[in-house]
């Protein structure tokens, strides 16, 4: 017969809950923790002492003393400078590496341009070089909890293998395993799709904090979605769910790099916008932004392109709203700029496609974490192990 959890299991769960609270919310008084976690004061005191002796949190008397009588409640804060995760993001035009402290603090970061089509064998040494540089600046006595990698591609959940990154030509690339050899065998590495990672970050500590049904639409050349349904990340059986860029929306549309035709990303991705704006030779984020800028300055061709592509954006989002009934849709990558430039078209098409019941509470948003979402989210993946069992993982 299965009995309830043991005292030790409960203690470990509570340690994780307390650490997660200060990791996500920042410095919190013992009194607030008592209320937030539903535990009594002596339990909070004992848990905090355990986490402090492991070097994960610190306690201090608050600087601003209240006017009321009585002792002030000690404030518990994450040891952001001491406990860190490594975070990497591999996006179509750039590579980023960062050291991120507990609490989501960016302690150090490096950004590198990425030529289109850079193969995995050339990508890993660039990130490893950035890692080496950052390692030199790490003070002694710090605790590294692992590494997270966000990749624009389809990632197998069980082992982080990048199955396909069509715009870079990657097929079955073990980028996580390659970087793990640089990080050291004892460093756990988690790899995930960049849209999933951004959704995770915005849900944990960004625009979607407190929302349980969220779609984060990430786009550049390709388009993907990180989907959170009922508070949980929806990744599908193998980890490949959310490939919304390959929803076929136009059977007479253009060929897609996935081998199909008329996929959504062939109507809203970078190439679609540049082609519609009569700039077929251009590519890259700067070229995309130049179209929005031209439209803003009254260039008729650019305005038509933005309206046309914005209409397709609303068309697809309307279908996603019908499928998932989200309370929030976040537009990231160049989808952010497209949404801002064509908000009226997006809204108008969305309203005509989506069922009114599915649509009634949808909020359309841009990312609160901006360009940091992929790195913050990659670090969050690495912190998960620590938050699940703080004393075991540290
Ligand atoms: Zn496709």
From TrEMBL:
Q: What is the lineage of its organism?
A: Bacteria, Bacillati, Actinomycetota, Actinomycetes, Micromonosporales
Q: Which Pfam families has this protein been placed in?
A: ROK
Q: Where does the source fall among the domains of life?
A: Bacteria
Which family would the database say this protein is a member of?
Belongs to the ROK (NagC/XylR) family.
Q: What is this protein called?
A: ROK family transcriptional regulator
């Amino acid at each position: 017969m299965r009995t309830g959890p043991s005292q030790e299991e409960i203690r470990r769960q509570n340690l994780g809950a307390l650490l997660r609270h200060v990791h996500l919310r920042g410095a919190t008084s013992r009194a607030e923790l008592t209320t937030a976690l539903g535990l009594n004061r002596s339990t909070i005191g004992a848990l905090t002492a355990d986490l402090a002796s492991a070097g994960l949190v610190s306690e201090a008397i608050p600087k601003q003393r209240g006017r009321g009588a009585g002792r002030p409640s000690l404030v518990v804060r994450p040891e952001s400078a001491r406990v860190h995760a490594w975070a990497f993001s591999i996006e179509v035009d750039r590579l980023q590496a960062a050291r991120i402290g507990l609490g989501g603090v960016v302690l150090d970061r490096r950004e590198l341009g990425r030529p289109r089509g850079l193969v995995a064998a050339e990508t890993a040494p660039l990130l490893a070089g950035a890692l080496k540089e950052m390692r030199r600046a790490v003070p002694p006595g710090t605790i590294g909890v692992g590494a997270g990698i966000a990749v624009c591609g389809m990632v197998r959940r069980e082992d982080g293998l990048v199955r396909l990154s069509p715009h870079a030509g990657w097929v079955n690339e073990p980028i996580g395993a390659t970087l793990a050899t640089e990080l050291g065998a004892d460093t756990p590495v988690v790899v995930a799709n960049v849209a999933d990672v951004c959704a995770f970050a915005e849900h944990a500590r960004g625009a979607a904090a407190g929302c349980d049904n969220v779609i984060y639409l990430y786009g550049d050349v390709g388009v993907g979605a990180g989907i959170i349904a009922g508070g949980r990340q929806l990744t599908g059986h193998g980890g490949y769910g959310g490939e919304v860029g390959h929803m076929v929306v136009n059977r007479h549309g253009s060929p897609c790099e996935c081998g199909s035709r008329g996929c959504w990303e062939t109507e809203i991705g970078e190439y679609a916008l540049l082609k519609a704006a009569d700039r077929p030779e251009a590519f890259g984020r700067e070229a995309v932004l130049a179209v929005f800028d031209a439209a803003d300055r009254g260039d008729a061709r650019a305005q038509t392109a933005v309206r046309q592509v914005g209409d397709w954006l609303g068309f697809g989002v309307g279908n996603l709203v019908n499928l998932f009934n989200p309370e929030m849709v976040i537009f990231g990558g160049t989808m952010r700029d497209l949404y801002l430039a064509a908000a009226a078209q997006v809204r108008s098409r969305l309203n005509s496609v989506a069922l009114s019941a599915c649509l009634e509470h949808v909020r359309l948003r841009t990312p609160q974490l901006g360009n940091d979402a992929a790195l913050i989210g990659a670090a969050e993946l690495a912190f998960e192990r620590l938050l699940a069992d703080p004393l075991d993982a540290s």
